[in-house]
Amino acid sequence: MLAFFDAIRLDLDLSWTGFASLVILVMVGSAVAGWVYEMLFYHVDSGGQWVRRGHGIGPWLPIYGFGALGIMFVCWDVRMFALRVILRSAVVTGLLELVTGWVLYRLCGGIRWWDYNTEIWNWGNIGGYVCLRSVAVFALAGYALMQIVVPLTAVLILYVGEGLAFPPTALLGAVYLADYIWGYFVKGF
Fold first, then answer.
1. For the chain, percent helix, then strand, then coil, each to nearest 5?
2. How far apart are the first and last CA of the chain?
3. Higher pLDDT, 106 or 49
4. Other C-beta atoms within 10 Å of 154: how many?
5. What is the pTM of this model?
6. Are 62 and 32 in contact (CB under 8 A)?
7. What pLDDT does residue 46 have?
8. How many CA atoms lie within 13 A of 18 on its CB side?
């Protein structure tokens, strides 16, 4: 597994410190982008009412961060092939949403954290946990992640300097992790 991460790191010309910064920035940035996406979508879906998404304090949804890392790792070897990236991104995000939704439903005593049964544009719905609209959006976002976000983030880290980029990135990662732990384990489901 370490060799796999090392290959990605070397492809991007990053040290291990720079790679750690990349992973943190991709995870947190994608979690924030997911929060914005959901805030806008649910604003439209609820007829103009703002619906606060998320369980922690921060403006992020961890499932999007985990999904982005999954896409980055699963699609790395095919990143130059658009259709393969899109298809793999669809599989990664669809499975993540389906499994996470099902597990959370079981852990939370039958409470759904999201339910595509009650939303607009929910075609291709599987048990309310995943729908074709969400998978299509995430697949296209996965392509953008691989073609734009990851390379530009790596260039930014190299431009700033890996040693200078790491402390604020690590602090951001620590805040994100603390909020995740507080929101999901201390505060409780």
1. 75, 0, 25
2. 32
3. 106
4. 22
5. 0.90
6. no
7. 65
8. 22
